[in-house]
Amino acid sequence: MKDTPAGMNTEMEHAICTLLGATESVMWRTDVTLRVVCSVGGPAKWADAEGGRDLTEYFGLDSLDGPVTSAHRAALAGRCGSCRHSWMGKPYWLSVAPVRGEGGQIVGCAGFGHPITEQPRLEEALADLEDRYDELLTATTSYRYTVKLDNGVPLQTEHGAGCVAVTGYKPEEYTADSDLWISMVAPRDVAMVRRHIDRLLAGEELPPLEHRIIRKDGQVRWVRDTIVRHCDNQGRLVRYDGLVEDITWRKHAEAELRDRDLQLAAAQKIQQRFLPSQSPRFPGLETGAAFVPAQFVAGDYYDYFTMPGGYAGFAVGDVSGHGFAPALVMVCTHMLFRILAHTTTDVARILSLANTALIREIEDDRFVTVLLVRIDPSSGWLVYASAGHPAGYVLDRDGQVKASLDSTGLPLSVVPEADYGVGSPVTLEPGDTVLLVTDGVTEAHGPMGDMFGVQRMLAVARANRHQKAARIAQALCDEAARFAAPEAREDDLTAVVVKVTGQGHPAVGR
What we know:
Elements (H helix, E strand, L loop, with lengths): L9 H12 L4 E6 L3 E7 L2 H4 L5 E2 H5 L7 H10 L4 E7 L2 E11 L5 E10 L3 H21 L2 E9 L2 E7 L3 H5 L3 H6 L3 H4 L6 H12 L7 E6 L5 E12 L5 E10 L1 H27 L10 E8 L7 E8 L3 E9 L4 H18 L5 H15 L6 E9 L4 E7 L4 E4 L5 E5 L20 E2 L5 E5 L1 H4 L10 H11 L5 H15 L9 E8 L10
Antiparallel strand pairs: 1-2, 1-6, 2-3, 4-5, 5-6, 7-8, 7-11, 9-10, 10-11, 12-21, 13-14, 14-15, 15-16, 16-19, 17-18, 17-20, 20-21
Helix pairs in contact: 10-11, 11-12
């Protein structure tokens, strides 16, 4: 076989030719003058090559200067050579070794070339990886840095590539400007940062420091700098590593929470100013109330007022929903009832007028339940009207239910021009107790899902009937709160209690 390296037997020649024919690999041999004397396999032009061609013709070289020639000359010098060579539009890796004669002298070179078939795919994958890495660096919100010291003096600082995303500056910019780390700190925080570093160099273990920086693009950002100290065997600080995290989003969230809390606190203060600050003085009556909001602000409402003719007015209400919006509706309802209660003693008309006003002002999905009670202190005559509110109760001196103050109409702001009736009047006598509550008391849910309920509420009132009115009201709310699972209590608790003493008005109950 004319184009097969010498020394191969026929069987080996056939095996090698078959193998190389199935691939694009190539074998060749040169003499000491670097002329190709035989070749096997490879691209068609190589496989068909006749002996006697020099390297430039065989490999398509422009000259004998270059890596291919250098690899062959290394082989003639007794060393193995290798290089990459692109030819016929494909990359090849060439390996060249010396060929020695029987006496050990170098008589030529033997080469083997194989196509780098994976190279394009690997290069493409590498480029994709680099793109992904760049995207990651752009998106990351933290980076590391290292400061090396000699006798407490910083000598060298290294910044991770993530500093670009956080600060806008590249690692080499920190290297070129040794003061960049402090010059990018927001002016109002510079003194704090310097004190932090001074304490670090003095040997203190410090918590993370949060401060502002001015990015290269002019943005003000919040960062959290966590530092880990490294000391030598003598305890001297030789290096510290830092992790800088962009916490701007957290700072903005905290600011929004603070603003919201301030707004809620202001709303709570406004709401509290609308609720009665002390119990009123009505002849022959003792009054008290308890109010426990489920949240910062509440949708429950209660009030006392003196109506024309000296009547004592009591109102307990509940706005649907929880939180800020119901609290605003509650304030509106409070003002509305205050105005109306000073113009008329007709409790049903007050509810009707309030309904007309509220239905124009509040959202469609909100409504208000109200129990409005009018008591004549001189006669003990109780008249009431209820807009869909839970029943109130009148207990006698023994704690037994004397009357139930049931609903007489729909909640407010449900139906325009709704009619509200007046409930059956009740004659109060000394020792009687009037209980007015919101559904947060009776519908408080316990851990097993059962409700506090009317009977438990009446039992608490009965057990405390000899207490002051304010103490009874507080007991009702306290017991309902204790009964409810803490995580399940979502409603406000409100109770108003009126005890008939008869003192100051001997006619009461006669």
